[in-house]
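Q&A log
Question type: sequence-to-structure
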Amino acid sequence: MARPLSRRSLLQAATLAAAVPALSRTVTGRAAAVPAAAALAAAAAPSAWTVRPFGLEEVALGRGVFADKRQLMLDHARGYDVNRLLQVFRANAGLATGGAVAPGGWEGLDGEANGNLRGHYTGHFLTMLAQAYRSTQEKVFADRIGTMVGALTEVRAALRRDPAALSVAGRFGTAVENVRGSYQYVELPAAVLGGAPAVTLSVWVKPTHDAGWTRVFDFGDDTNRYLYLAARNQAGVPRFAVTTSGAGGEQGLNGTATLPLNQWSHLAVTLAGGTGTLYVNGTAVARNTAMTLTPSALGTLRNNWLGRSNYSADPVFAGAFEEFNVFSRALTAAEITELQSRPAADASTGKGDLASYAFDETAGGTFADASGRGLTATLRRTWGGPSHPGFLAAYPETQFIDLESRTTSDYTKVWAPYYTAHKILRGLLDACTATDDDRALDLASGMCDWMYSRLSKLPESTLQRMWGIFSSGEFGGIVEAICDLHTITGKAEHLALAKLFDLDRLIDACAANTDILDGLHANQHIPIFTGYVRLYDETGEERYLTSAKHFWDMVVPHRMYGIGGTSTQEFWKARDVIAGTIGATTAETCCAYNMLKLSRTLFFHEQDPKYMDYYERALYNQVLGSKQDKPDAEKPLVTYFIGLTPGHVRDYTPKQGTTCCEGTGMESATKYQDSVYFTRSDGSALYVNLYSPSTLTWAEKGVTVTQTTRFPQEQGSTLAFGGGPASFTLRLRVPSWATAGFRVTVNGRAVSGTPKPGSYFDVSRTWRAGDTVRIAMPFRTRVEKALDDPSLQTLFHGPVNLVARDAATEWLKVGLYGNAGLSGDLAHSLTPVPGKPLHFTLDGREWAPFSEGTEDPTHAYFRRFEPKAVFGGEDSGVANPARADGTTLLDEIWAGAPFRSKGALVARVRSTVDAWVTAGMLSRADGDQVVRTAAGASYRP
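Response status: OK
Response body:
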């Protein structure tokens, strides 16, 4: 009997990453493919898909540029300490972080916008590990996934409980630590100060962070009546203050030196008889004889806190507490000195008579008072706790709460919390897909239960407002991930949750083919549509699919650069404005990643070759070029923006690090093979979408297909079949740029038919072991013009975007027509560089593939400069006139290429010249000279 589908098999089939075979566990802990499961998983693919992808484990990369780039990322995945990623999650839950240092940048509290996006990078890293494991079956990746999923399970369990003491070594015994990022503090009963007319407050502290205005203690009602001791004031030194009239009425004491980090320091304050004294490590560092306010003047206070301020904007104290004592008298200097060397219980002072906390508890969330007054203290979170047991994040739930009432964007307050939730959710789903870890699925399902509990209570108008807010309301590809989860759980609430992310204004406009993209943040919106396509799969509602198709057409080609990228300064401008948007911050790398996902998802429904033409363009140029060609254990070395300005040098360590683009870059580099091959859902056809060295194991058909090629260095590819026999149609993509021919042979015999650029060429037969298919597709060199300025152009050799390596910061002026062949191929103007495939020289400059991840200054666009009408190297001496839109005489002539013969070219020259003479843009004499030159020149094919 066939093995039933596991959760993992279902998830693999559901997820757009692939419809893949299930894996079984062997006694070694490694995963082994279950051959029969691939066919079973295929049956679970969405019924709306007319083609489906293969799993990463079914397609093995061969040697070449993709394998080389992937190896760099795999080494990074092996070497990076995942405990650093888990640090912010553990801290948020109040758990020990084991001394791990958060990655920093966007993934740390000190990063951009206060680290409000932290947690997102951990999700990306999980996805990278999952893809790496599926591709290589290396146990190290599965082990790392297990470590992360186990830790996140512990984090969620801790968040579900009241906070518990984190016991650490203290000055005398044990102490309690508040980890930075835990947002924890100690709440004391209201009677702690006892209304005393004189008081001493004594405490040992070990600060671990240098944030200003963190409170060692703060007793008050609000920001008018309080008494506090801050570890650091604006000058970086301790400050004690008491007031009944706000900050302006503070009576204070300031220290003289900064408290050292990660060291124990003793602080004490005495108040009595109008005099206040501040002691640091037994030394009186400040005295104020005009301090008339004491606890008796403050009365009973509502907020009595260790580690938290009555000013909500002040950070929570990060560090450890030990021996907090409150005495109803002013201790002498000698008594303060005595407390430096022994606990209060062993000193002449004895324990504090108003309150005394040793903080020697090793469990639980309460702290005993040894004063005899029974004032038990309690560990609290500033934000209370999760609203639902499924909550999982690296920061409090407060950003989600704030978003619900927010009307404007402010990423220092709320930075895309549902975007971050998506990255975590996606990472967990991918982890489950790769390792069959039920804990990951449980965490993912719990997150969606929690989100549904929040969002389902909100009015529709609130949701529409939220999702329309720039940045704060961004939710990434969360709809896609929720739909994938729903395929597994079948929970109606999960499908309902996915629909709660409908942004009706966007869906309706795009469904009506009304272009409203001008001014929108690009990467905020691209992944939305991949999710909407998945919603179409789950619901059958046509508006989701229709809007996504129209949206894609609004981006390609109308807002696309030659390399396949889109956006400028992260935003879209008006339709068809390309030259007018080029700058140092064009082509955000995340946009290319998400456009690839959308393109392949649309292809699952409609096999329009334009989607795979775009996929090749963006993958072979921007995505490959976004990864630097060198190893690094600390950073993935991926671009954020790719500037297309003259002389731009790519930045592979963008911003402060751990950015969204580095996250998607890690993912891209571990799934290069995900769209090389697709199959018809009924198994009747195999699509070869990309020409990339790889081996497909098609278990359903019992065949293997090994593609051997050095493409794009090689202008063709070879497919060798193993196994079989199996009958199906081989569908070979004919790239839109393949205008010089596309020839196919099977076992050495030419296949009849006329392949058309921008289509698929079919070969139907029963395939047997030993069958060999050879594809030849000669490259031509061509230019693509900016839609709004035809004189600004970018150069291609086949699928390869070529960039000039030159430090100049002005547009280079480049001429190409002088040696053009009858085919219109501009390659004759380029000279190949010996020993460097796909490198050329032109006018003394080197041109190289955009895909090479170097730090050379490059020119992806240039100014076309053809001042004279030159044919076959012969200069007519006549200026090359131009129309108002920048189109030149030579442009119009060569637009007729390819030419069957020299005579056909000359005829084109003559007819074009006549039209320009008639239009008054060229004199008859000059026109005749142009025709004579063209007729007298010699041309290459």
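Response note: The longest helix spans residues 139-160.
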